[in-house]
Amino acid sequence: MNLSRLSRALPALVVALAPLSASVVAESAASPVAVTVKPWRFETLGGASSEYLRYIAALRLSSDDPRFGGFSGLAVSADGRTLLAVSDQSWWLKGELQYTDGKLSGISDVRMAPLAGLDGKRPKQKRMQDAEALVALTPKGPDGAVAVGFERAPRVQRHTPGKDGFPGTPEAVRLPHDVDSGPENEELEALGVLASGPWRGRYIAISEGTITADGGAVKGWVFGGKGKPFEFSVKIDGTFRITDLIVLPGGDILLLERSFAAPSWLPGMSVRLVRAAAIAPGAVIEPQPLHKAQVPRAMVDNLEGLAAFQTSQGEARLLVMSDDNYARDRQSTILVEFALTLPDPQP
Q: What pTM was computed for the model?
């Protein structure tokens, strides 16, 4: 995602880290990563919770490892314990999350590994590295098969489990031909697998900036599996743009969106709901707003990764992760936890 203006204008939220090491990191195997975890003051003026999303906890993660950062896609296990993320420089991040008194409190056993392309090697060119979306394809979650969506050179890769507990060499998923018809670096941004209805088991993808002819919506697609791919669109909410999606167990879809635009230039996040029944060929969807938070009422950074799990008490939780754009003097890698309550279906 092109966020150079964000990197320039966002006020410094953390003390600048030391320059990244120039040493070459091995790209053939997984390796441990030393990560510092500190509480993050996400809620500042009471603007972090709403009727449907209740703020629980937030952490700031940092590391001197040059691979660490840029996390744009996120998946977690059904119990919220195992985290897998992808960076827009084609690195995997995996770790075990800890909870204290039912709140996110830490991460351990953190490892990173190269995200392989179709040739089994991590891509060298930035436009080929730009992983933006991640979805687990089986009940095994991060330990099973996953799919990754890429933006600058739009494509989807399906990975089965490989060595060292990370996804292995992928196979390509065939995309609708116009997925790459949008503006440079604003194409495939969010990816999921539909869980109900006539399109169950097929991929759903939404662009960041592939705008419909009337300028009021962004394009999305359903593809894979049996049947022809089809296009739909999602109405734009002001300055907010979609950065991720998740498909909930019942089939409904949550959209994570990010705003950074005039007149305030203050980062904001939004979560909107798409009912499963709204997905159809040619549909123009207007999602239901669930939550908005913006600086200074909440310390929102560039939130791009979204995942869901369920506590042992049966409560739905969301995890949201930020992409620091490797601008460590101005942005942070934060992980935020919310409790989710869905609104009753509208008549």
A: 0.90
